[in-house]
Amino acid sequence: MSYFGEVDLGPSFQPFHALQELFGFVPNLFRAQTLLPRLIEAEAGLAAAVLWNERVLSRSRKEFMALLVSAAYGNTSCFTQHHQTLRSLGVPDHQLDQIVTDHHQADLSSRDTVLLDFALKLAISAPWLSREDITVLQDQGFTDESILEAILVTGLTGFFCTLSTGLGVLPDFEPRAIPGSHKVPPPDKRLYVGGTAGPYLPALELSPESFPPFAFFVERFGLVPRIFRAQTLRTDLIEAEVDVVRTVLVPEDILSHVQKECIFLVGSAANLNTYCVAAHCEMLRRMEVSTEESDQIAVDHHQAELSEADKRLLDFALKLTARSSEFECEDVELLRRHGFSEEHILEAVAATALNNFFNTLQMGLGTTPDFEARHVFGPKDAHLSSTVDRPTEGTQVDPDAELVARVQGGDLDAFEELVSRHSRRVYRTLMGILGSIEEAQDAMQDTFLKAFQHIGEFQGRSKFSTWLVTIANNTGVQRLRERRHVESLDDIPSEADAEFRPRQVRAWAEDPEQLCSQAERRELVESAMMQLPPKYRVVLVLRDIEQLSGAEVAAALGLGIPAMKARLLRARLMLREALAPHFVSSAKRMSL
Amino acid sequence: MITCDEFMAELGNYLEGDAAAEIRQQLEHHLSHCQTCQVVYDSTLKTVKIVTDSGSFDLPEVAARPIRDEIMARIRKGPT
Questions:
Q1: In DSSP terms, which residues pair with A584 in a beta bridge?
Q2: What pTM was estimated for this model as a whole?
Q3: What distance in Å separates the CA atoms of residue A11 and residue A23, rounded to the nearest whole number?
Q4: Mean pLDDT, chain A, whole residue set
C-alpha cells in the first residue's frame, strides 16, 4: 500500500481508534507511517484541528478547497480521498468534476467561488498572493478567522499531498481520475509579491508566560517567530502546529537537526520563500553552520561541503518539493542505497511535507522575516527548484515557452506543434531505453498524452524539452519494469557494471568517417548501441545524439551530474570498444 | 606524472570540458607521454563524433506523422 513496511501498533494505539471512528477505517496514509508512530499522532491532531473539526468554515467548504488543491497538485490519492468525503456529504459527482474542471462553472455561491480562487492561487502561485486577495475574501464577508482557516486548509492539503507522494500511498478507494482542469495562465512576473508584504491579518498579543506554545518557541529558538504570532486568532491551530514541530523537528534520534534544517532550507528556497530561508539559515548558524555554507545550500547544495549521502537526501527533499509529479519509488530506493534507514526516509518525507505546509502558511499570512533576509527571492529564482545545474537551466530562454503557454490556455494546435518539434527526441529517448521500434513508438504516444495531461503543472522551472524527456524516460523505465520485473535501469544486471578497462588500444584512422558511408556508419552505431545495456544507451542518445547539455541529461534521467558523467564515459568507452575493429587505421592492422 | 588510472578517472570531465585548469594541465602532460592513453582519448573523441553525426535511431516523417495524428486524435477526443 506504500513504499514502506507496516507494523502492528496494537489495539492500544489511540490515534488509530480516532481515525477508525472518523472514517470507519484507518487511511493508508497513516498506515504507511507505523514505523514512526509519533508522526501519525501529531499529523492526525493537526488534521483534526484544521480540517475535520468544524469551527468557522464548514467541513464541506474545507473539503471543496482540499479537493481542488489536491487536483492542482495532481495527487490522485488525496483527490480520491476528498472526492469520497464530499460524496458522502451528498455532493453529486458531476459537481465535483466541474469544480476541478472549472470551479467558476460549478454552480457554487460567489463566496465559495472566491474561496476556491484563493486556495488555488495560494497552492500553486503563493509568491504572487497579495493583500488584495485577502481583501477580496473580506469583501465577500469572510471573517479574519475564517481566512486564517482557509490558509491552513490549503497548507494542510499540500502537507498531505507531499506526504502521500513521498510515502507512495495508494488510495483507500477505487482511484478517481482527476478531470482535466481549465488552464490557469502562468502568473505575470511583474505582479510578483514575494510573500512578505503583510502581515495581512490582525493578531492578538499573547505572551510566552500565558501561552505555553510561545514559551516553547522562546525556549527552543529564542523568540516567537512572526508566522506564529500572526495566527493568534486561533490558538488551537497554533497548538496543533507546535505539536507537529515538536514531533518532526525536535527529536534527533533519527535524522540530525542539521539534516532537518537543511531539508527545510532547500525546500523553502525551491518555494521561493524568503521568510523561511532566512529563518532556517539562522537556525543553521546557531548549529555552527556558517552563513556562507547555508547560502550555498539554499542556492545549490551540490556545491556545498556536504557528504554524498546528505546531498542525496537534499535531492530527495527538493524533488519531492518541486517536482513531485516525477517522484517515484526509485527516489526512495536511492536513499536506501546511500545507507538511510526506513525511519530516516520517513522522517525526511515528513520534514519535507512540514516545510511545504509552513511555506504555504507563511505566504498566506505575508509575515516579514524575523531575521535579516539572506536571499530575497524573485520570480527569476524559479530555477532553484531544479536539482541540477540550476543557473544554466534557469537563464536559458526556453524556445517552447510561448507554445506551452498557449497549450496551457487550451490551444490544442499549439500542442500539435510541440509534438512535431519533439517527437524525434522523445522517440530516440525511448529507443535508448526500450531498444525496440514498436515499443518506442507506442511509448511515445503515452509520453505525449501524459505531457498533455500534466502540462498545467509545468511551471517553466526547466526547459519544456527537458521536462518532456523526463516523462519519456519515466515512461520507458516503467515499461521496462513491466517487461523485466526491475525497478530501475540500475537493476538490470550487466557485465558492463564491473571494472571497465579499455582493451582496444590500436590507433584509429586519422579520418575514420571516410572508411565507410554514412549509411554504413549509422548501421554500425545502431548495431553497437543495441548491444549496450539500456542505462548506457539512453545516456549516449541524450548527450551525443540529441546533444542535450550534461545538466539536462542528468535532470532528465534523475541523476546527479557526477553519476551522469560516470555513466556517459563508460558508455562512450564501451561503444569505442565495439566500433574500434571498424575504424583502426589500416596501416596498424597490416603491421599486426 | 599522474598514472593511467588517474587519467581514466578524469577522462569524463576532460571530454566534457569540465576539468579544472590544474587537472587539465596534468592530463595533457600525461597524454604527451603515454601512447595508450593518447589512443584511448583520440578514439573516444572520434567515437563521439561518429555517434553524433550518425543520425542513429531517427524517426522518419513518414513514421512520425501517423503517430502524431493518433496522439492528437486521442487528445481531441478528450478523456474517455
A1: A508
A2: 0.60
A3: 17
A4: 87
